[in-house]
Amino acid sequence: MAEATGLDYWLQWQVLVCALIVFIPTIISLNLIIKTSRRQVKQQQLKSCDLWLPCWKNLHPKWLLLYRVIAFCFMALLLCQTVVSFGPFICFYYTQWTVALVLVYFAIGVIVSARGCWTYPKEPLANNAEREMLVAKDYSDSAHESTTDIKAVGENSIHQEAGALENLMQSIYHACGGAVMLTDLVFWFLLLPWGNDSLTMLLGLLHSANVVFLVLDSAFNNHPFPWSRFTYFVLWSCAYIISQWIIHFCGVVTWWPYPFLELDTPWAPAWYFGLALFHIPCYALYSLLIKAKDFILSRMFPRAFLRFYD
């Protein structure tokens, strides 16, 4: 087996194939993100309130803020405990990257929600009254008419467009949605049954709390989850793999955090291609959770649950 730091290692044919599997999606994702960003600038659909206003009637934004504070503190404590227990090299794993990304999401969410709670009571009475009239109306109308009215009020009542922080938060949210699914599914169904990992309470929490906290946040927020945002998830995973290659090329470490990242095997392209394809069901699974939330809760609680997006 060739050394990961030697030139012969990086000149193998499977390394070139794996590089194409990683760099092609990276370039495509960056290109789509640029095009989507330009389109959103023209359409200006995302509002600042979409990031901190709950999708439940009579639920004050302060409760969403409180939840995000709790989630941030718990995830920060969990990440710190993991580093203390396993050492700083544990940060080479994709799991820790994902937990850190979720932590950043909740950190930004706390800032955005706090700012939203600060401005929420200061909205003109007419705007708040208009919103209260909407959420108090009889929801016996068709779902299409209700959704249209809600969107119209959302655009007319709070005119502030989402800023750079809100757009960053939404982008991280979509990357987190797929990443937590990928992390937990690979751990519970691949690494734990077939690998050498032994289950501990810390590892169990680490590979479950991330998705639990994010799903609960999704149950209260107004974030849409379109497939066009799949690119952020792809870009996040590609950034992780490229960073691992750079670390190994520079000789910082000589071991791979996951056996399927090893390049010195003819099966490496198959592993990398399989992982690339596995991103699709991971993102689709979280997208289905969001659609199920909108479909089920809007019918179970038609007077309490508000859908701001189709």
TrEMBL record:
The chain crosses the membrane at residues 12-34, 65-86, 92-112, 172-192, 198-220, 232-258, 270-290. GO terms for cellular component: membrane. It comes from Daucus carota subsp. sativus (Carrot). Keywords: Membrane, Transmembrane, Transmembrane helix. This is Transmembrane protein. Coiled coil: none annotated.
